[in-house]
Amino acid sequence: MHRVLIIVLTLLLVASCTTNSVYDVYKPVANGKWHKDSIIQFTFTPADTVSKNNLYINLRNNKEYAFNNIFLIVGIQFPNNYQVVDTLEYEMADAEGKFLGKGLTDIKQNKLEYKTNVTFPVSGDYSVSVQHAMRKSGEIEGIEELDGITDIGLQIQKVAAND
Q: Where are the domains of the chain?
């Protein structure tokens, strides 16, 4: 019976880890304080120029994060120097202030949809930059050091043929 249970658990673990992920990298934020001038860079070289991909910005936050949303400036630099920059807003907490995302501890992980069905038409290195653009309501100056964001990640998943 133990042997069957171990085999079933192993198969479940392997199946749950199967993903179409072609890139999945996290970078830590020093001391959980993300400086407004700190731009987090991810550089990757796509395997092909035809496949469609979904891009996600992954954030890990702890209880020190004091807001129910986050504003990010995200840019993609193509190998031919073409660049696309977006200002994005994501919810980080529900109406009662409970953090969204997954995690059983004080650290929550949020998978934020950035772009879907993207192809990388030019061969070479691409660079994605992520910077926070948070400010307190009614204030012009941005928050110097944003507390509570512990890690920033970029995940690229190949779109399955049946999607």
A: 20-158
In the chain, the N- to C-terminal Cα span, in Å, equals 38
* Structural fold of domain 20-158: Jelly Rolls (2.60.120)
Mark the ranges of the chain whose per-residue pLDDT is less than 70.
Answer: 1-19, 162-163
Cα(132)–Cα(65) distance, integer angstroms: 13
- The DSSP annotation for 41-54 comes to EEEE--S-SSS-EE
Query: For position 65, what pLDDT does the model report?
Result: 93
Structure tokens at 27: 């970078």
User: H/E element holding 27?
Assistant: strand 21-28
**C-beta contacts of 26-31 below 8 A and 24+ residues apart:** 26/58, 26/60, 26/151, 26/152, 26/153, 27/151, 27/152, 27/153, 28/150, 28/151, 29/149, 29/150, 29/151, 29/152
Largest CA distance in the chain: 64
State residue 16's pLDDT score. Answer: 47
Q: For CA atoms 161, 129, 114, 84, give the dihedral sign.
A: negative
